[in-house]
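Hey,
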Amino acid sequence: MVTETRVPDTDTTVPQNRLVRRIALGAFAAVVGIVTYTALRGAPAPDVDAGGTEMDVRIAVAGVDPATAALPLSTTLTSIDGAPVDQNPENATDGLVVHPHRETPVHETPGGKPLARLPRTMLGDSGNTWLPVIEQKPDWVHVLLPSKPNGSTGWIRSADVDYARTPYTVNVRLQTKKVQLVKDGRVTDTWTVGIGKPAAPTPVGRTFLLGAFTDPKQQFSPVILPLGTHSPTLDTFGGGPGTVAIHTWPTTDVFGTESSDGCIRVPSAALKKLSEVPLGTLVMITDD
């Protein structure tokens, strides 16, 4: 048995993941790319110990299958060859998110070819991996992956994950240059933001909040929120893998413009609220 729980509201006792391991990947350079993580911390993570609706699943077997140990890890730093592409990038989910409680294989189809390994933690040793569920079948869940190419998905065993549910969705509307925070289907906040320039656009599609970190080597944003998607035109930036992120900016003239290298530049008030949104929360980036 595992328990599916509703993610607590952010003004209650939601656990915070704080990663302190340094992962040197270059300089963030104020735009696109995961870089030097010195105080990486997760946004609120779902509390799987709280009450909720029970879901029948198989009991996980501890350890890693030697047959899949050589597969690549699915992280923002990797590409997964042969990963199924998201077939419904414009569809919202019901907020179900999962966390692997052990390293588990990612499969092409339920019970099919293993393509990668999904780690328990993302971007360090202490922050739990939370991924949005886009489809379910008996004993299996279909999730969005943080790896390249954009829109990569995979199937993992239900027995290997904990379940929770987030009430939030983040909508990024590129044409109007607006970000909306949605809770329980209702827009609670709307902000004008800056997006990627034509040569390095912000990628369209559904993705998710991968984590949060601070970088003392930059002064443009107190917290950076990497997403599970990458620049469609930049293979790398500043030594990082071209990961798109949400962050603020020291001047307000960028809001309402196409001026970044793919990242979403938001006002300070927006960053504060978005930093409290649970990991795994769906982020819908659309052309409207």
